Description:
Layout: H1 5-22, H2 27-33, H3 38-45, H4 53-62, H5 67-80, H6 95-104, E1 107-114, H7 125-136, H8 141-151, E2 162-168, H9 169-173, H10 179-193, E3 198-203, E4 217-222, E5 230-234, E6 239-242, H11 245-261, H12 265-279
Parallel strand pairs: 1-2, 2-3
Antiparallel strand pairs: 1-4, 4-5, 5-6
Helix pairs in contact: 1-5, 2-3, 4-5, 7-8, 10-12
GO molecular function: DNA binding
InterPro entries: Cro/C1-type_HTH, DUF5753, Lambda_DNA-bd_dom_sf
Protein name: Helix-turn-helix domain-containing protein
Amino acid sequence: MTASPTVRRRRIARELRQLRERAGMTLDVAARQLDMSKSNLSRIENAQIGIKPRDVRAALALYQVTGADAEALIEIARGAQQRGWWQHYSDVLPEWFEFYVGLEAEAATLRTYEAEAVPGLLQTEAYAREVYRLTAGEEDLDRKVAARLRRQEVLHSEAPVELSVVLNEAALLRPVSNRAVMAGQATHLEDIAQLPNVTIQVLPFEAGGHPAMNSPYVLLTFADTADAAVVYLENLSMGMALEEVAQVRSYSLVHERLRRLALDPAASLIRLKEASRYFT
């Protein structure tokens, strides 16, 4: 059973859409039978809004799903109504980013490329504070940093996420703060890189051009194969989740190519140590 209400909502959305299609019903027909608007049913099927367990039961009856299969889906719908820890930070986390954090909390693997900054899961408190100051100002700074540090628990949980990071050398060496903050961040990366579930590879300047030059990304997969992989992209004002099989495969291939272009983990660790000495 999935733990994240975001992942559960996404599962219910996919199941209801597939069941409606198998039943040969259009959105119009199903919405009328369920006494809801077509737009609401569409938003439910796209995981934009949640659905109450009683409405899931009504939909399953309409699609002629009964017994243990129906009860399992209704139980998932109940779980989707729970609150994730990130919802306690809704005052400082945009709704579109809450969605990502909900996926991240349940992911089995994360593969990411970052060009300008150390990924949030690997940031020290001091580095995160400076990044927020530069990108968002002083407002609610403590709350934002606290939420970022809370996210990092996925690296140290009982079943920690498998994390593969390709980090542009520019992100490693760009001095976003004073030398002490940067040295502390580089040392932290050294420590994290030695966790058994974390692989950090530095993409050196000498690697030249590469296929992700205009597109940092996070690729998430989940332990339950019923939860499809997601590519998450982000800019200053919104995030986007790509779920098509071809899109996921494209980014998977890009990540593997970046890993081949990057320094291997042992050589990357040496580069991290060099960065730490550089800022000391």
